[in-house]
Design goal:
Chain lengths: ~475, ~675, ~325
């Protein structure tokens, strides 16, 4: 028995997904909405980064379906008790990687602990040795000899699986494309592999294959070894860094989602109505803007910490508390970051309101609210979109810095910032523990880089000033 | 006739790569002699500017010259290295551009921008440099040159900036000056000044000028020889006199016929159907064939060759092929019955709209508490009647407040004073819902067909918007039916309702805008320069449409324009504005034929005439229009008026009635 | 000019009042002083007496806004709002929750902050503008494309990585500079050089890409075509015309951060153990010293507004189109 848990951030994430799906359905048959997106995807870099982003998003979404497991029913107990531990679908998929916790540090692919331990041997003599890991490489009888070949065997298997899967996907996609273009699947496949199609499907396929290779590698290796080692308390670093994806995505998306309504509504109103409305809104954002961002966040987060600490009764589980803190962080980040977009939209609205189609609508006696929604909003959306994609990567990076400063996400939440923050001290150890840091940086880099490349393409396609130049 | 200075052979320019590359210049050949003015005439998108840029190898990054030769004094410019080319630019060939506002570097003084050329090509330094710069500024007629030397471009008016551009071009003492639409962005009175200046300088320095323009009038005043470009090719070349007497190519002839003027008032203008074809495709036949009234099958299948028709003259047209006998090439006749019957005069007697003492003042605010320190008097006491079924033209140069009058009447800008009575209602006092309801009766058509429609709405929704807002036109299905009917009424097809504005050309967009206003059954339409962004051939289509609609729907127009020829063709009454006030008003004949106010006279005389020797005395105005924030005391026009007297400086002249329908404000009038 | 500056200063007053009210609400309304006392004393064994004592020690034992017990002006002045918030306007920062004089600390600690922030800013400008000019000069070529891709890659890397990697390579591996610490006077350069280099390098990606966009925007303007038609060479164009125009947005964008340089760089100072205001702030956050955080929020706002004023003034100096009215 399980009990579903809908965290606040989950709800908002799914709301966001619903909005995006709704937009896609709406835009499908509207050429002027589709064209710029096709333009985006025509860039090979954008296509590849979109695929990578999709992989991240998928992980994050799997990690956003939360539930609590029922505890084993004790004798004479009527009510089912649920575990205090909130799990996600992703945790289930990770299976052993989550549960196989070692005693302490171990290096990537290690079979022994990274630290010496005093062990009393069968002969009763105490020795300081590197003991075998409880789980990592447990299946090997003679780890020193067998480990290399075992890893190679598993990797080869993964490669073979990838090849099979890639072929399957190639066949499926050529079949689908063939139906759309009224071609034979064989000819379509050839065109696809030569890169002759109007969209870079070949690049997409290559990226998917690469990701599949990683997936199968992990599938084959992660159960038997700690691919990225373990941390101080013996938890698998790969698991941690994968769990951090959700945190990064939530901060990157929900922050903008929270601030967008304010930024859009206030920016449009300030620009369109001018006068005292404009004065008030300008005062509001100049004031907020004048407080250094980090300090405002720090102050707000500190206050929230005090508040949460003084009101422990509000939260049922640790996870819920951490989630509330995450949401609050998004809120604070949103409050500090809407001003830029608001100012941009105000300026653009000032220009748009003088445009002749807005004047024409006024001349028809169209209501002001209708003018805002029908004439201003659709012509501002490209700016909003560009701001959203550009902000995303900045926010993901900001999370790491804020967690380092101590005003980031809850310390119990797995995030790249927390991982780096903890691993920082490990750098000073001799010998150094580097894998936590590396794992966090690599996964964060992957997300931020693909987001940046994607946002570049989006900007090129949507920014009219850039379009004119071409 | 001088020796040949520049010879261009079969010049071809591409923009972009691959099969979709645009070919704005496709096999252009011409030559220019020393000291002469050669005009390259054409509508927008015909490739004339690209030709000029190709000569100097200043194409945009995506562009490249794909073939041909450009010989300056026998030296092929296209074979020069970039370094070699740099010593040609600004030195032997100089160029001035259309937009003086953006063509100067905003953060450099005008002196240093001119000095740069002298330093580069003449090696001048220090005092000699400064002296020469001031001399050049003087030569282009910039008053107080020594002081202006250190000013920045934003401190100068548009006309002055164009003079600075000319000074920059002159600095290298070039053999050839390329002037790319040098006066298009300027007002007529300023245009007249600049054209005069160009002519003077040409004489003084003995330069050749390649004049690029779309304006037949400018060509008539300036050119020795003319070449007409169409769709990337030169279709006709001739000495100017001969060209204006007997244009040969069907396109040239149609251009003349499409020009509006008073003599064509009683009939629709001849139009060239369709628009200039896009240049990213291959042409099999003549490029003009699909718009040509004399085309026959041969024209569509066979590209025409060049046929000489005299000294320095030739045509790119099958009609002039001596080896071909045209199958049918009748001169097009006016389609019968298209002439719009004149509306009976009585119906125009009762005014639909009465504007009395309209004022639109914009406060100038300063300081912490937004203290009002002054007013920009954009409109300062304008009175005007518009009768039903009539067209009143409001004429003036940019900045005179004519657009503000239009918007003030429509209550798009709330007037600060005066009254606007429409059909008995005082519009300035209507508020909220009552004003919103009344808005159906008066509508507006804007100048720029590109910004007047929301790019994210379908044409059908755009046309329907007014009906929805006014809650007229029945249910959705009925409204859709009306939208389709309207589209047909303005010469488009019903299925266009499902398309987006960017899929249409400028002329088609203007038709959609007209349909949009018609949707709410207005009685008055304010037309704010509706054709000034359009080419002559398309302008004729729109003017015809407006005239037809007036006849069939009984509309009244307030036609705001700076274009006198359009006024002559379309208007019943004319009001001339200067600096926020109407200086002269009367019937179209009275004002255009017997202008009494010195400003009207100067304005009319400054309009370039296509008769090369009309023998008209041209009154040249000095200086620019003053700022409406700080109008001159007395008669606003006195600082520029050639006939100003003492009393003109003291008080604003009262209205003088010259006839029951003609009045003007000037002390000189009896 | 003088009148203009005074007027701009007056504009700043309502904004500072807003900031002040906001921080007051954040620090004293969301959580009562009792909550903070409890937090500082530790959750477990808190007695009402301990809370009262803590509040008295730190000056929080007053009503928030209105003191009914006090006499005369004291009703307004003898309150937390007046003591803790209004006094900030006179730059009286009071003492920290740890008992130190904040004003004095700020005076001491801003110099090391400046020793990092000023070189980062100046060196950064030089490097970014040169790099961006280089890319703009070779626009459209492979050099440009790879430069842009490199920029995107660089800006995708966390600042923390640059710091950690830099410390590891230069201090731990090659022992070129001390890993952290600070020493006043001229010897400071040994401690400053690495954080400055990292600070500059970390901004390379985003800044030079942005500056390149500014350059390209200018290059596509009409006046450049005019200059080209004069026969100017490509470097002549870039340095003579484009740079002058592009510097307007670049420099004015820099001026706005000038005053906030005093605040130091939180991350760099903390990692490298520089005793500046940045690490001061971080320490305050970590030890939950609200008095310091409050003071820094106010100081930061003042400096930011100063930056806005300086920006407006600098516009009038750099851009002839804008004249003070």
């Amino acid at each position: 028995m399980i009990k579903p848990v809908l965290l606040w951030t989950d709800a908002l994430v799914f709301l966001l997904v619903a909005v995006i799906v709704a937009f896609v359905l709406y835009a499908r048959h509207r050429e002027h909405l589709r064209t710029p997106w096709r333009e985006v995807l025509r860039s090979r870099l954008a296509m590849a980064s979109l695929v990578v982003l999709a992989a991240y998003v998928l992980t994050g979404l799997l990690d956003s379906v939360h539930f609590r497991k029922a505890l084993p029913v004790k004798n004479g107990q009527q009510e089912i008790q649920y575990s205090g531990e909130v799990l996600s679908l992703f945790d289930l998929l990770m299976g052993p990687v989550r549960t196989q916790v070692e005693k302490s540090y171990s290096a990537p692919f290690a079979v022994r602990l990274y630290t010496r331990e005093a062990v009393i041997g069968p002969d009763g003599v105490q020795r300081r040795i590197y003991p075998r890991l409880r789980y990592g490489g447990r299946h090997l009888a003679d780890p020193d000899r067998e480990r290399g070949p075992d890893i190679a065997r598993r990797a080869t298997l993964a490669a073979a699986e990838t090849a099979a899967a890639a072929l399957l996907i190639l066949w499926l996609s050529s079949w689908r494309l063939a139906r759309r273009h009224a071609e034979t699947p064989r000819r379509m496949a050839r065109q696809l592999l030569r890169g002759d199609l109007d969209l870079p499907w070949r690049t997409a396929l290559a990226t998917v294959s690469l990701l599949l290779l990683l997936l199968f590698m992990l599938y084959n290796l992660a159960g038997a070894y700690h691919v990225f080692g373990t941390d101080k308390v013996g938890q698998d670093v790969l698991y941690q860094t994968l769990k951090s994806i959700r945190t990064g995505l939530v901060i990157g998306t929900l922050t903008t989602l929270i601030m967008l309504p304010f930024a859009i509504a206030l920016g449009m109103m300030a620009g369109y109505f001018r006068g005292w409305v404009d004065d008030i809104i300008q005062y509001l954002y100049t004031t907020l803007n004048s407080i250094p961002g980090v300090l405002l966040i720090a102050a707000a987060v500190l206050m929230m910490q005090v508040y949460i600490a003084n009101h422990p009764e509000l939260f049922e589980t640790m996870t819920e508390r951490a989630d509330m803190r995450l949401l609050f962080l998004c809120l604070i980040l949103g409050i500090t970051s809407w001003t830029g977009l608001c100012r941009l939209l105000r300026g653009e609205s000032l220009k748009l309101r003088e445009l002749e189609y807005v004047q024409a609508a006024t001349a028809f006696g169209v209501a002001r609210a209708t003018i805002l929604i029908r004439h201003l909003l659709p012509n501002l959306m490209h700016l909003v979109l560009i701001a959203v994609v550009i902000d995303f990567s900045g926010l993901v990076l900001a999370e790491a810095v804020l967690s380092y400063v101590g005003v980031g996400v809850d310390p119990t939440t797995l995030s790249w910032g927390n991982m780096i923050n903890r691993a920082r001290l490990e750098m000073a150890r001799e010998p150094m523990v580097w894998w936590s840091l590396l794992a966090a940086f690599v996964f964060m880099f992957g997300l931020v880089l693909s987001a940046n490349l994607f946002s570049d393409a989006v900007r090129d396609a949507f920014d009219p000033r850039l379009r004119q130049r071409q | 006739m001088g020796e040949k200075l520049l010879e261009v052979f079969d010049l071809r320019t591409r923009i972009g790569r691959g099969p979709r590359a645009v070919r704005p210049v496709d096999g252009v050949s011409f030559h220019i002699r020393r000291g002469e003015t050669f005009a390259l005439l054409g509508e927008s998108g015909c490739g004339k500017s690209m030709t000029a840029l190709s000569l100097l190898r200043l194409l945009p990054p995506a562009g490249r010259i794909a073939g041909g030769r450009v010989e300056l004094d026998g030296e092929n410019l296209l074979a020069l290295t970039e370094r070699g080319m740099r010593s040609v630019r600004g030195n032997r060939i100089a160029m001035i551009f259309q937009e003086p506002m953006t063509s100067l570097n905003p953060v450099m003084t005008i002196g240093s921008q001119i000095g740069e050329v002298l330093e580069l090509h003449k090696g001048l330094r220090g005092d000699a440099l400064r002296e020469k710069t001031v001399e050049l500024l003087d030569a282009v007629g910039i008053p107080d040159a020594a002081r202006r030397h250190g000013e920045y471009p934003h401190q100068l008016s548009g006309g002055m900036k164009q003079r600075v551009m000319i000074a920059i071009a002159l600095a290298g003492e070039p053999d050839l000056l390329i002037a790319d639409e040098p006066t298009t962005a300027l007002d007529v009175t300023i245009q007249a000044q600049v054209l005069d200046l160009l002519r003077d300088l040409q004489k003084r320095y003995g330069m050749a000028v390649l004049l690029i323009t779309h304006d037949l009038g400018v060509v008539a005043q300036m050119a020795d020889r003319v070449a007409v470009m169409y769709a990337g090719q030169i279709v006709e070349q001739a000495p100017a006199r001969r060209f204006f007497d007997t244009p040969q190519h069907p396109y040239s002839r149609r251009l003349f016929q499409a020009l509006p003027d008073s003599s064509k008032r009683d009939r629709p203008l001849t139009v060239i159907p369709g628009s200039v074809p896009p240049l990213d495709r291959d042409f099999t036949g003549c490029r003009f064939a699909e718009r040509c009234d004399r085309a026959w099958l041969h024209c569509r299948t066979q590209a025409p060759g060049w046929f000489d028709t005299g000294a320095d003259a030739g045509v790119l047209c099958h009609l002039f092929d001596p080896g071909l006998v045209p199958e049918t090439a009748p001169e097009a006749t006016q389609e019968a019955g298209a002439a719009s019957p004149e509306a009976p005069a009585e119906s125009g007697s009762q005014p639909l709209l009465v504007v009395d003492g309209l004022q639109v003042h914009f406060p100038i605010q300063r300081g912490l508490f937004k203290r009002t320190v002054g007013h920009v008097k954009a409109v300062d006491g304008v009175s005007l009647d518009i009768p039903t079924r009539r067209t009143v033209a409001l004429v003036g140069e940019s900045g005179c407040g004519k657009t503000t009058v239009g918007k003030g009447i429509l209550q798009l800008i709330r007037p600060t004073g005066g009254s606007v009575r429409f059909d008995g209602d005082e519009l300035t006092r209507l508020r909220g819902e009552r004003l919103r309801k009344r808005r159906a009766d008066f509508q507006i058509i804007f100048q720029d067909p590109f910004s007047s429609m929301n790019p994210r709405m379908q044409v059908g929704d755009i046309i329907e918007e007014g009906m929805v807002a006014q809650r007229i036109g029945g249910d959705r299905a009925q409204r859709r039916a009306r939208v389709e009917a309207l589209l047909q009424q303005v010469g488009l097809r019903p299925e266009h309702a499902g398309r987006y504005p960017h899929e249409f050309s400028g002329g088609q967009r203007q038709r959609i805008c007209i349909a949009r206003t018609l949707a709410v059954n207005p009685k008055l339409i304010v037309c704010d320069e509706p054709t000034s962004a359009l080419d002559v051939s398309v302008q004729a289509q729109i003017l015809n449409l407006l005239k037809d609609l007036q006849a069939s729907l009984g509309l009244a127009y307030l036609f705001i324009t700076h274009d006198i020829s359009v006024v002559a063709y379309l208007a019943d009454r004319v009001a001339v504005m200067y600096l926020g006030r109407i200086v002269e008003e009367g019937s179209v004949d009275e004002v255009l034929e017997d202008a009494r106010h010195p400003y009207t006279q100067a304005l009319l005389s400054a309009v370039p005439d296509i008769e090369p020797d009309s023998g008209r005395a041209i009154i040249r105005l000095q200086g620019d229009m003053p700022s409406p924030a700080n109008p001159p005391a007395g008669c606003h026009f006195h600082p520029r008026c050639p006939k100003a007297r003492d009393e003109c400086r003291r008080a604003y002249p009262p209205e003088t009635a010259l006839s029951p329908t003609h009045k003007a404000r000037c002390f000189l009038l009896p | 000019m003088f009148a203009y500056v005074v007027r701009r200063m007056l504009y700043a007053v309502p904004i500072l009042i807003g900031v002040n009210l906001l921080t007051f609400a954040l620090f004293f309304v969301v959580n009562s002083p009792d909550d903070m006392a409890r937090m500082h004393l530790g959750m477990k064994r808190v007695t009402p007496e301990a809370i009262e004592k803590w509040k008295a020690d730190h000056g929080y034992d007053r009503p928030l806004l209105y003191n009914a017990q006090a006499e005369g002006l004291g009703r307004v002045t003898d309150t937390i709002f007046f003591e803790k918030s209004v006094r900030l306007f006179a730059f009286q920062f009071g003492s920290s929750d740890g008992g130190r004089n904040i004003g004095q600390d700020i005076g001491q600690r801003m110099w090391p902050s400046l020793a990092i922030a000023v070189p980062v800013l100046l060196l950064g400008l030089l490097v970014y503008i040169s790099f961006a000019m280089l890319l703009a000069f070779f626009r459209g070529t492979y050099l440009d494309v790879s430069g842009v891709v490199l920029s995107v890659v660089l800006m995708s890397i966390s600042l923390l990585f640059y710091i950690i990697a830099g410390q590891y390579v230069f201090s731990k591996l090659f022992h070129l500079v001390p890993i952290s610490g600070y020493q006043p006077g001229w010897l400071a350069w040994r401690f400053v050089i690495l954080p400055v280099a990292i600070g500059v390098f970390a901004g390379l990606g985003s800044s030079s890409r942005w500056y390149r966009t500014i350059f390209l925007e200018e290059i596509n303007k009409d006046y450049v075509r005019t200059a080209r038609a004069k026969g100017l060479s490509e470097p002549g164009l870039l340095f003579g015309h484009v740079l002058k125009n592009a510097l307007v947005p670049i420099l004015t964008g820099v001026v706005v951060v000038l005053p906030t340089l005093f605040m130091g760089n939180l991350i760099l100072e903390s990692f490298f153990g520089i005793p500046g205001l940045g690490s001061y702030t971080i320490d305050a956050i970590n030890s939950q010293d609200f008095a310091i955080v409050r003071a820094m929020v106010f100081l930061g706002s003042v400096l930011y507004i100063l930056g806005l004023i300086l920006t407006d003034i600098s516009y009038t100096l750099v851009d002839p189109r804008i004249r003070l009215s």
